[in-house]
Amino acid sequence: MPIDPQIEILLRQLAAEGGPAPESRTVAENRAAGRAFAALAGAAEPVADVLDTTVPAGDREIPIRIYRPVTEPDAGPLPVTLYFHGGGWVFGDLDTQDHIARTVADRSGTIVVSVDYRLAPEHRFPAATDDAYAALTWVADNAAGFGGDGERIAVFGESAGGNLAATLAQEALRRGGPCITLQVLAYPALDRFDDSPSMYEYTTGPILSRSYLEWFWGAYLGSPDQGADPRVSPGRYDKLAGLPPAVIATAEHDPLRDQADLYAHKLAEAGVPVQHFPVKGAVHGFLSFTGSVQLSRTVLNQLSGTVAEAFN
Q1: Could you confirm whether 191 is annotated as catalytic?
Q2: 284 in catalytic set
Q3: Which residues pair with 246 in a beta bridge?
């Protein structure tokens, strides 16, 4: 179907601003554009409490932001949702997807821990995946300190963050823990070598073009052969039995659509419970458009609802 009318209006506004193609911009320019995208989310949703702190990981500290939803005073330890922002492993931070973390916290009734993982090209693969696993183990061991339940954890990521969330679910299974209850993947990047029809159908975008995707991969990976690593391409991994239930949302007008669709089928064939949300009329990154796009708000609420259901 055609692009959602409200998204189409937004795309026209963005196109009117002009500027060079994103794959021809510098890293700093793309990071600035990513920060500007945050304004499309609209007003911040109130939550009960927000705390910025860090996770110790060897000789470094990983910044995190903890969001506590509004709950009854005697609600007891709450489940925790570990959230990973998008941005092609190159940009994005605790502020750019603050609206998603807030909405997930309030709609799911879970404490959301948003992770400011290290970015490429300064920190190439596997820095981001290492930070993701360090954050997971820290939450499992320390959730009680912020009112959470370290034995009830969901992971939620969008775009590159969806890649990290999928990778984390697999890595936790390979390592024997910590236990993850649910993985929520929104238009995730799952296969470095994907050559499916959607990669050609939407080779020029909108939002994410194939050449822009190549720019991200070039910044993230240190060598081409790393693309075969399951921590880079979790969609190519075959030992999927035993993974936590998955919720996968794909955007119709997105070059990444087919690889996420395929992963949903592979998980189901391996006996993993899967809820698949193919979002008609949507484009890559549409969860950032909640300020003016009803479809974005609706889907984000639906995804948050699946988290709530997983712990009820």
Answers
A1: no
A2: yes
A3: 183, 274
